[in-house]
Design brief:
There is one protein chain. The protein is built from 8 helices and 11 strands. It is α/β, with parallel strands linked by helices and 227 residues long. The protein folds into 2 domains: 115 residues, Response regulator (Rossmann fold), CATH 3.40.50.2300; 95 residues, Winged helix-like DNA-binding domain superfamily/Winged helix DNA-binding domain (Arc Repressor Mutant, subunit A, Orthogonal Bundle). The strands form 3 sheets. It has a 5-stranded parallel β-sheet, sandwiched between helices. The protein has a 4-stranded antiparallel β-sheet with strand order 6-7-8-9, covered by helices on one side. Strands 10-11 form a two-stranded antiparallel ribbon. Helix 2 packs parallel to helix 3 and helix 6 packs across helix 8. The longest helix is centred in the C-terminal third of the chain and has 17 residues.
Length: 227
């Protein structure tokens, strides 16, 4: 999943970004409201972490403008403004969640997980596709009872497949949602990571659950023969 961190305190910005990258998220950053609006408008983020006290354009103004154009984009406000009035205003402007500073990173990550899995998963926090399961709280993948030892990018790919089981996913969409803004769409990285993910899944499943639709992209199947 791809996240934009908008924070003008650069040390905090980098700390949040690094923590999320360690957990396997693709992260872009910026430090003012104008850049935040421009990036959010042209890129396909799954979630934005938005400070309110920003130079050039206030965070609430950014949120207001985004809600006019991207109603489904998830926004988590992270702000030192802690009054009830500020929280109400932020939520009324269209934020999906509001967390005040100072905060614990574990709570921030839990709120991010909650927003990203909204409407997709069952109450037990599992994503399931046939014999493949992902525990989103623990960030662990299994085939039956066997844990899949995946890299961060392989896990992110599998998670995205399971969140979008009903359709073919293009290489460009994977770039948009799993790699950050420095990714080279012509590098072949997606093919390499999908190949290694396929190999690991096939070893435990005895069939390849990831199928290729030539000229369009990839899709996942629940059982051998479904394609």
């Amino acid at each position: 999943m791809r996240i934009l961190v908008v924070e003008d305190e650069l040390d905090l910005q980098e700390a949040i970004a690094e923590g999320l990258r360690i957990e396997g998220y693709a992260v872009d950053t910026c430090s003012n409201g104008e850049d935040a609006y421009e990036l959010a408008y042209v890129e396909n983020y799954d979630l934005i972490i938005l400070d309110l006290n920003l130079p050039k354009m206030d965070g609430l103004k950014v949120l207001e403008k985004l809600r006019e154009e991207k109603k489904e984009l998830k926004v988590l406000i992270l702000s030192a403004r802690s009054s009830v009035n500020d929280k109400v205003k932020g939520l009324d402007f269209g934020a999906n969640d509001y967390l005040t500073k100072p905060f614990d990173f574990a709570e921030l990550e839990a709120r991010i997980r909650n927003l990203l899995r909204w409407k997709f998963i069952q109450e037990n926090n599992l994503l399931t596709c046939g014999r493949i399961n992902i525990d989103l709280s623990k960030r662990i993948a299994f085939v039956d009872e066997n844990e899949l030892l995946l890299t961060k990018k392989e896990f992110a790919l599998l998670e995205y497949f399971l969140l979008h089981q009903e359709r073919v996913i293009s290489q460009e969409e994977f770039i948009d949602h799993i790699w950050d803004g420095n990714a080279d769409s012509f590098s072949g990285a997606i093919r390499v990571h999908i190949a290694t993910l396929r190999k690991k899944l096939k070893t435990l499943l005895d069939y390849d659950p990831i199928c290729t639709k030539i000229g369009e992209g990839y899709f996942i199947i629940k059982n051998d023969g479904d394609a």
